[in-house]
Amino acid sequence: MTDRSHRIAGSCADDFKKEEYEEEWQLEDGTGGFGTLDVKVPKEEPDSLHGPGFVKDEKVSTPAKRKKAAPEQNVGLSFEDLFPKEAVRQFCDRYKAGRSTKEDFFYRHEHTDEGVVATLVMPLLKNREFRGYEAADTKEAERSAAEAFTADGEVLEIAERLPPPFSHFKKRAKNSRRKQDEMMAQGLTGGKNMVLQMAHDRYMGLREQGARTAVWDGNA
Fold it and tell me: Nearest CA to 167 among 175, 159, 155, 179?
């Protein structure tokens, strides 16, 4: 290679040693000459050290399970979120402390020229009757009678003091291994009878707190 070739090659190498991300642009001026403009292109930071779209792992804490409230804390029945006829059924189940039947409440119907009138008869509650408005069909008539029941003052007073279903106490007793161990240590036999006894004792404790059932009210 000649000296001239070395000089050309060296010159080219110097051109490529310019500051990174800088370019030299030649702009034609109004007189036909050329000026020089240095444009600096800023470096772009990557979205993430791991590449675009990478989501950094974060420590996620799992909330502790809430301890379920004791059945004794759920005394009372609200009709607010219940359909009228469902409110009647739940009231009777809890007032009876068991599954209610047609012997506890039923609907009596009176057909008219305009439709039908239903009366809710409740032997479970001193044979009280709750008469609804005249309606076009039996279903609407029974709903009207049930609404009359849920608006009654005595019914609302009792509903506020109804114990939770007995099944809640049985479930609680079944899961109370510590209490079962204590009773077995006292010489009692474990098993289903023990669970029922534990549930019964807690359920009966509500009577002293003012809870009401048909038996405790003398209506059964």
Answer: 175
Question: What is the location of CATH 3.30.160.20 in the chain?
Answer: 72-159
Q: Which residues make Cβ contacts (< 8 Å) with residue 168, sequence separation at least 6?
A: 71, 74
Q: Which two tokens stand for residue 142?
A: 């029974």
- Token pair for residue 129? 């009757």
CB atoms inside a 10 Å sphere around CB 160: 14
Task: Copy the structure tokens of residue 180.
Answer: 């079962």
- To the question of domain 72-159 being in CATH 3.30.160.20, the answer is yes
Structure tokens at 11: 């010159």
Distance between CA atoms of 183 and 190, rounded to whole angstroms? 8
| Confidence (pLDDT) at 27 | 42
Tens-place pLDDT, residues 86-126: 999 999 999 999 999 999 999 999 999 999 999 999 999 99
168/219 Cα distance (integer angstroms): 23
CB contact at 8 A, 168 and 71: yes
Q: How many angstroms separate the Cα of 19 from the Cα of each of 14, 15, 27, 170, 209?
A: 11, 10, 20, 82, 87
Q: What is the dihedral of CA 162, 165, 168, 170, to 10 degrees?
A: 110
One-letter amino acid at 159 equals A
pTM comes to 0.61
Contact status, residue 202 vs residue 71, Cβ threshold 8 Å: yes
| Vertex 162: Cα angle to 98 and 83 (nearest 5) | 80
